[in-house]
Amino acid sequence: MVTDHLALIDHLEERIHALFKSISLDDQEEHAVKIEYIQPSKPAQNGFVERFNRTYREEVLDAYLFSSLEEAKRITADWLHGYNSIRPHASLGNQTPYEYSTETDGVYL
Length: 109
What we know:
Blueprint (H helix, E strand, L loop, with lengths): L1 H9 L1 H10 L3 H6 L16 H15 L7 H18 L10 H7 L6
């Protein structure tokens, strides 16, 4: 049932938070990872993710009425391919993320 999947999505943020909290300090030091959370009600501190989320919501979630989870996954995969490989991004000098990553040392997609 679709509402079951919506309930899972509703709790995704809490699951991700729990996952990050479970990463030990030793693991963080070993892999040079520093976890910093944005302040509540400050989405501008996470502008890239907020921009992606808005674009995904407008172009996929608001544009389709999914009949199954598999359909949602397929449409999302197709959209991600276009977003990362075909669609130019103004913030990357009107290049696709793939084009930009091949011209920039140390950036891999």
